[in-house]
Design goal:
about 250 residues, mainly alpha, two-stranded antiparallel ribbon, 10 helices, about 50% helix, globular, Acyl-CoA desaturase
Length: about 250
């Protein structure tokens, strides 16, 4: 039972840091926060994502490219230009590595206005730090696993961020319904996105990319938004007024 609790906790805490800090804050600046809170969420993201940590800058750049080039060959992770979810995420990994290592020329319009903490990001990207996180996960399972099949969950822990990305970008651009014609293949896959914290409202988000609540219809529920609303009321963050349409478009 402890293993399953730990797995669910890792799934949702890693997911929260991705959708709250990297996506809605770093990539879209849907809200602001004090620099001290920014550092807190930087560390929290590193701890929760562990071996699959992504730089908020790298995440923001890839995500802005994804909006601008949605479901074209220039999209870093469109399911419509790749054979399967694995090859899609491998392409994403290669684009991310090129951005992180400075091997690609990112368009100036995608740059800027994202959080950076060079020392922590460099630490998190060291291969042996990622391996150490993996060792922590393995040690926990050795200590508490009671059935052999529980060890089959370990690869998901190792690649948690990539698993989330595969579900969101493959499912959210292939399966579901559309509220808006965005001239791409984005879909809303679930009415209540219990699986990815609102990220599967891709069609809504591609239309209203600065809106903190990814649910648009009264019957669509984005479970991350109540957390954001609460943090705003507690003055941890300050929500910004959404813009009516996407800011980034393909040139």
């Amino acid at each position: 039972m402890l293993i399953l609790v730990a797995f669910v906790a890792h799934w949702y805490l890693s997911l929260f840091t991705q959708t709250f800090f990297q996506h809605r804050y770093a990539a879209h600046r849907m809200f602001t926060m004090h620099p001290l809170w920014e550092r807190f969420f930087f560390v929290f993201t590193f701890l929760m994502q562990g071996s699959s940590f992504m730089s908020p800058r790298g995440y923001a750049l890839l995500h802005r490219m994804h909006h601008a080039y949605s479901d074209t060959e220039q999209d870093p992770h469109s399911p419509h230009y790749t054979a399967n979810a694995f090859t899609m995420m491998w392409k994403t990994r290669n684009v991310y590595q090129d951005v992180w290592l400075g091997r690609s020329n990112v368009a100036a319009r995608f740059e800027g206005n994202y959080p950076e903490w060079v020392a922590l990001e460099n630490l998190a990207h060291l291969w042996y730090v990622r391996v150490l996180w993996g060792a922590v996960y393995v040690a926990f399972y050795v200590a508490f696993a009671t059935e052999w099949w529980m060890y089959l969950l370990l690869p998901i822990h190792f690649m948690m961020g990539a698993v989330h990305g595969a579900i969101v970008n493959w499912g959210g651009h292939k399966y579901g319904y559309q509220n808006f014609d965005n001239h791409d293949k984005s879909r809303n896959s679930l009415f209540f996105d219990f699986l990815t914290g609102g990220e599967l409202f891709q069609n809504n988000h591609h239309k209203l990319s600065s809106r903190a609540n990814f649910g648009v219809k009264w019957w669509e529920f984005d479970p991350t938004y109540p957390v954001i609303w609460t943090l705003d009321k507690l003055h941890v963050i300050r929500l910004r007024a959404p813009k009516p349409t996407n800011v980034l478009r393909a040139a």
